[in-house]
């Protein structure tokens, strides 16, 4: 029997009024379903404010980006927001490229706790 995919979520903690989810490793076709299941409860409460730290992510593919987009849309649907923290140049280029139209709110670092 194959091993279950590794969890992509390293840590979830409060950061002021936000929830900080720090991810690591690779987010791809194998780990995306696990990540989706872990992010879903963070985005369906009233007015969620979720910070997803991608600084320790070595690789993210289109499936991983789609999971982040679904989580962002869920947070927005509940009058909240999902912000990404990312400094990797290639990942930033993909997340912010206007032609791809992802529309993510990307920060360079952890904001001050409110």
From TrEMBL:
Residues 19-92 form the STAS domain. It comes from the Bacteria. This is STAS domain-containing protein. It comes from Streptomyces mirabilis.
């Amino acid at each position: 029997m194959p091993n279950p995919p590794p969890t992509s979520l390293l840590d979830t903690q409060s950061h002021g009024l936000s929830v900080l989810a720090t991810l690591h490793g690779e987010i791809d076709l194998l780990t995306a379903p696990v990540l989706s299941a872990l992010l879903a409860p963070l985005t369906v409460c009233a007015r969620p404010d979720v910070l997803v730290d991608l600084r320790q992510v070595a690789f993210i593919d289109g499936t991983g980006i789609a999971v982040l987009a679904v989580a962002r849309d869920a947070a927005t649907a509940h009058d909240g927001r999902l912000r990404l923290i990312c400094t990797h140049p290639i990942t930033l280029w993909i997340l912010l490229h206007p032609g791809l139209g992802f529309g993510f709110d990307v920060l360079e670092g952890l904001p001050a706790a409110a």
